[in-house]
Write a structure and sequence with these properties.
This protein has a 5-stranded antiparallel beta sheet with strand order 1-2-3-5-4, covered by helices on one side. Helices cover 24% and strands 22% of the residues. The chain is an alpha+beta fold. The protein has a single domain (4-104), classed as HIT family, subunit A (2-Layer Sandwich). The structure holds guanosine-5'-monophosphate. The site of guanosine-5'-monophosphate (5GP) has 11 residues, from loops. Guanosine-5'-monophosphate (5GP) is lined by residues 4, 15, 27, 29-31, 86, 92-95.
């Protein structure tokens, strides 16, 4: 069965998409926890960092290049921002499709709960 992010990739459910290319799509999180909060995900179905294969390394490097570009566009680059990927139950992953949260627009707390 198609997951929620696959439906966003296939435009079956709406999302505020801020970037799309052959390998990735980025859209604003539906429940933002910072003034700027978007997700960058691969179009390829990869569950998380732990299950990715070495063949996926080019996808990862591309994702980080997209994050760099979007951080500039969203005015996060100068003050700084955070990139987070949750993995599995203890990591707090709720959607089983690899995604990188990009958070910024305010000073963020550390450590997380
Ligand atoms: P996780 O908890 O797996 O690290 O992050 C999943 C994120 O996806 C959450 O921050 C959640 O708000 C976001 N999310 C879940 N469903 C949707 C949706 O349908 N649309 C959008 N834009 N974000 C979603």
């Amino acid at each position: 069965m198609k997951g929620i992010f696959e439906k966003i990739i296939d435009k079956e459910i709406p999302a505020d998409i801020i970037h799309e290319d052959e390998l990735t799509i980025a859209f604003r999180d539906i429940s933002p926890v910072a003034p700027v909060h978007f997700l960058v995900i691969p179009k390829k179905k990869i569950t998380n960092v732990q299950t990715a294969s070495p063949q996926d390394s080019s996808v990862f490097s591309h994702i980080f290049s997209v994050i760099q570009q979007l951080a500039l566009k969203e005015n996060l680059a100068e003050d700084g921002y955070r990139v987070v990927t949750n993995i599995g139950e203890y990591g707090g992953q709720t959607v089983d499709h690899l995604h990188f949260h990009v958070l910024g627009g305010r000073a963020l707390q550390w450590p997380p709960g």
